[in-house]
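CO-FOLDING WORKSHEET

Operator: S.A.
Ligand of interest: 2-acetamido-2-deoxy-beta-D-glucopyranose
Run index: 605
Mode: holo prediction, single chain
Checklist:
[x] sequence pasted
[x] SMILES validated
[ ] output reviewed
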Amino acid sequence: MAVMFKVLCFYVLPLLFVSGQAQQILESSFNQDANGNPQPQTDPTAVPDVKPKPKPGNDVGAENAEPGFTGKWELVSDNSGVSAMHAILLPKINKVLMYDATIWRISKFALPPEKRPCHVVDAAKKIEDCWCHSVLFDIDNYQLKALKIETDTWCSSGGLTVDGNLVGTGGFMNGANTVRFLDTCDKCDWREYPTALADPRWYATQITLPDGRFIIFGGRDAFSYEYIPLEGQANKKSIFFPFLRDTSDNIQGNFGNQKFFRLENNLYPFVHLSPDGNIFVFANNRSILFNPNTDKVVRELPVLTGGARNYPASGMSVLLPIRLHARGNAEVKSAEVLVCGGAQWDAFFYAETKKELLPALRDCGRIHLIKANAQWKKELMPSPRVMADMMILPTGDVLMINGAQAGTSAWGDAEEPNLVPVLYKTKGKKGNRFQELTAGTIPRMYHSVAVVLPDGKVLVAGSNTNDGYRYDVKYPTELRVEKFSPPYLDPSLAQLRQEINVEKSDKVITYGKQFTVNVGSKELELNRNDIKVTMYAPAFTTHGVSMNQRLLMLGTVDVINNVWPGIHSIIAMAPPSGTVAPPGYYLLYVVYKGVPSVAMWIQIK
Ligand SMILES: *[C@@H]1O[C@H](CO)[C@@H](O)[C@H](O)[C@H]1NC(C)=O
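OUTPUT RECEIVED:
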């Protein structure tokens, strides 16, 4: 306990002292006396759509849909058991893995009998933790399944193996150097290795490499990266990465017994695998391309002006969809990154020391990764956004959702929840790319998540701006789960939705080889030009960072209509290599006239 308190002081108290809440927070952290019995809600409360529907015509597609449908929200569960700080859709089983942290020793879902005995926190003091901190949330019936985790996953990272199992990394205290594994089998539960990483990884970013290995960058005071070891192995040392040291912000001065105020602004760096094999790393306002084969920085990109973009100034970033050709791609020559929102560089200082919440950033920068001398192209979002999520939709457009309009990440440091999702039209003309969608009603700020689902909806969960589970405050710990339907799910476009015939389609595909997707269709025939086949890598989402998120737009080689009555055959070209599409499970969508089908899981290796 003494050790724990010391570490808590070192890490947590500097963040809290200024608000004078440390004592109260410590007490509330260890309060075992909560009343949350597990009561997963199974009663979805979808509101039927009663708007008049435009008459379907042959040329109706999502691009020229009635302007009336700007998306729809549904509350699907009142209790996700744990407040979803981290979330990822697991392949094959269609469940979203959600977890928060063990430090609070509380959630809204008690450990069920089959998962007992409880976790022993301190044997001498007889302190136990009898709550779930990770669950599987069924995206169809909203039931919860309990999992048992021992190490602290607070502000951790993760990704999926080639076989679709989870590898999670880092966290707090005994979780910081941990590598943990979770397979998707029915009885599976966490396997944890607390000494597997060389450096502590608290707020680090993990991505998948072309050969299926993982690399992890950063974390608090970890100016390094390392390759995640296989199960049962441990790293002896990490590799120094000065870029993270050089992008860490501090304010010098006298702050209690500290000689500086820790701003950082470079935690949870944005990391994307460029289809040329280099790794794009963005931290604070700078970015580099890094070659993992030589461990060398290849090129530094221009500074993105306007403020800070990484935790706690949490902006958001995606690698924009990668377009491939029907005839195959020897190499991909174009890839772009989008970075949006964030906070002024000293916003965290004002939030923590003065409770003054500065307006979030409103600008986006977009840059080419492969073209030398590329510059950031700037645009303004309709509203400011910090700690939000940016999700790539099956169509290739980008959804900006969740977050706040003022303040920064950290407990109680934000206001003005941004309830209005924004659609970013990737191929739209400059000045015409943003569309505001139907506003939600539930604030989703610090520690909230978004997950792209097989049916093209986006699941939204979490938000906990409190240190612990608290319900008596302005922004209570959020356990409600919603689904958001983007405009392409306009009910009047439903007849355009193709239905993938999973039985009759290729589910394991090979790099550079053609494969077949069969769709049941209401159309007598499909025109190749109206079809896009896209592949989405499920993202590990936490703190506005969606690790490994990636969408590939495949080349459509051919369409053979009516191979069986009402079934059309689409021949698509698989991505050329693991550099373009790291091996593993993807959601495969057939997008027809801008309307995505329900996805099918495919595996590429
Ligand atoms: C980038 O961020 C650093 C650290 O906050 C700041 O000193 C610098 O002025 C910024 N550069 C630009 C061009 O905005």
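REVIEW:
The helical segments are 2-11, 13-16, 22-29, 242-246, 347-354.
The pocket of 2-acetamido-2-deoxy-beta-D-glucopyranose is lined by residues 249, 284-285, 303, 305, 345 (CB under 6 Å).
[x] output reviewed
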